[in-house]
Specification:
Blueprint (H helix, E strand, L loop, with lengths): L8 H19 L4 H29 L1 H17 L9 E2 L3 E8 L3 E8 L4 E5 L4 H11 L2 E6 L5 H4 L2 H7 L4 E4 L10 E2 L5 E4 L2 E7 L8 E5 L9 E3 L4 E2 L2 E2 L7 H12 L6 E3 L5 H11 L4 H15 L7 E2 H7 L8 H7 L10 H19 L2
Parallel strand pairs: 4-5, 5-6, 6-7, 11-14
Antiparallel strand pairs: 1-2, 2-3, 3-4, 8-9, 9-10, 10-11, 12-13, 14-15
Helix pairs in contact: 1-2, 2-3, 7-12, 8-9, 8-12
GO molecular function: hydroxyacylglutathione hydrolase activity; metal ion binding
Membrane topology: Peripheral membrane protein
Keywords: Cell membrane, Hydrolase, Membrane, Metal-binding, Mitochondrion, Transmembrane, Transmembrane helix, Zinc
Length: 359
């Protein structure tokens, strides 16, 4: 479970105290210069602590669940279908993207012969249930990439509605209503679907991605990447280090070029815009951006891409590229081991991306 009851007393006390301090500093009748100075001091010294407290409240208490429910209600009214999606049909297998919340994707993976379905990150149980009923399939498993409510919020309702449904995920990540813990390289079998879990910590401690093996249906493999990897982007490192995230991204880099990437969010246009800042001469990025802009003008989904495409324009998968290293980060150290320098470059890319996003 991602929460066990109401917030611990210390979280309430510390959180309320910090909020009180912030309010005093922001509305104090002191001089403007003094207020600005204290405000800056508060922001620079307390930003990380405030974030950690807020993050703990979101991931470990009922407050996070209540916040998710509010997001869900608003999104159903404002973004009833943020993107137009198309299923991918293979030989007896269907992958159905389901737009949820304001920019998330859930997925149904369907064995069309056995009429069995697996849901990936079902954050809006109503939308996922509607897709299940429309497809006329039986939900037998939920694959959860990580604990954040915008990926795991539908676990309770769907597992209660479908009595035989199993909930898979990492035991290290506090997945709500987890029934079947998975470790790195464990395989979930549903009909002809063979889905391998890969440990990719960094965004959260127990983040998993799921690789649908293409061999049984003679098609491409499919990677359901949650918040590890997006089209031309990657997730923030909330519960790890740059080294941890780099190792997880390298796990993905080891997969085949024709692997289809099914990410957890519709971030393509924003991510490609940032990629153009750090690699303005990248022609593959420019071509992809033109295609994405045409898609988004009609509110069409941009997924999937392929890992081969991502290698050509996703800066977070290109920390080994000399041009990017020379432009943004240090080169290999005197020992010849470039692991540290690649991690530093990844950290700098993440910092620049966060700044770019706020503009």
């Amino acid at each position: 479970m991602a929460w066990r009851g109401w917030p611990e007393p210390w979280l309430w006390v510390v959180g309320c105290a910090l909020l009180l301090v912030a309010c005093v500093l922001l509305v104090s009748p002191r001089s403007c210069r003094a207020r600005l100075g204290l405000r800056g001091l508060l922001m620079t010294r307390s930003q990380r602590l405030l974030f950690r407290i807020g993050y703990s409240l979101y991931t470990r208490t009922w407050l996070g669940y209540l916040f998710y429910r509010q997001q869900l209600r608003r999104a159903r009214n404002r973004y009833p279908k943020h993107s137009k999606t198309q299923p991918r049909l293979f030989n007896g297998v269907k992958v159905l993207p389901i737009p949820v919340l304001s920019d998330n994707y859930s997925y149904l993976i369907i064995d069309t012969q056995a009429r069995l379905a697996v849901a990936v990150d079902p954050s809006d149980p109503r939308a996922v249930q509607a897709a299940i009923e429309k497809e006329g399939v039986t939900l037998v498993a939920i694959l959860c990439t990580h604990k954040h409510w915008d990926h795991s919020g539908g676990n309770r309702d769907l597992s209660r509605r479908h009595q035989d449904c199993r909930v898979y995920g990492s035991p290290d990540d506090g997945i709500p209503y987890l029934t079947h813990p998975l470790c790195h390289q464990d395989v979930v079998s549903v009909g002809r679907l063979q889905i391998r879990a890969l440990a990719t910590p960094g965004h959260t401690q127990g983040h998993l991605v799921y690789l649908l093996d293409g061999e049984p249906y003679e098609g491409p493999s499919c990677l359901f990447s949650g918040d590890l990897l997006f089209l031309s982007g990657c997730g923030r490192t909330f519960e790890g280090t740059a080294e941890t995230m780099l190792s997880s991204l390298d796990t993905v880099l080891g997969l085949e070029d024709d692997t289809l990437l099914w990410p957890g969010h519709e971030y393509a246009e924003e991510n490609l815009g940032f990629a153009g800042v750090v690699e303005p001469e990248n022609l593959a990025r420019e071509r992809k951006m033109q295609w994405v802009q045409r898609q988004r003008m009609e509110r069409r989904s941009t997924c999937p891409s392929t890992l081969g495409e991502e290698r050509s324009y996703n800066p977070f998968l290109r920390t080994h590229c000399l041009a990017l290293q020379e432009a943004l980060g240090p080169g290999p150290g005197p020992t010849g081991d470039d692991g540290c320098s690649r991690a530093q470059l990844l950290e700098e890319l993440r910092r620049l991306k966060d700044t770019h996003k706020s503009k």
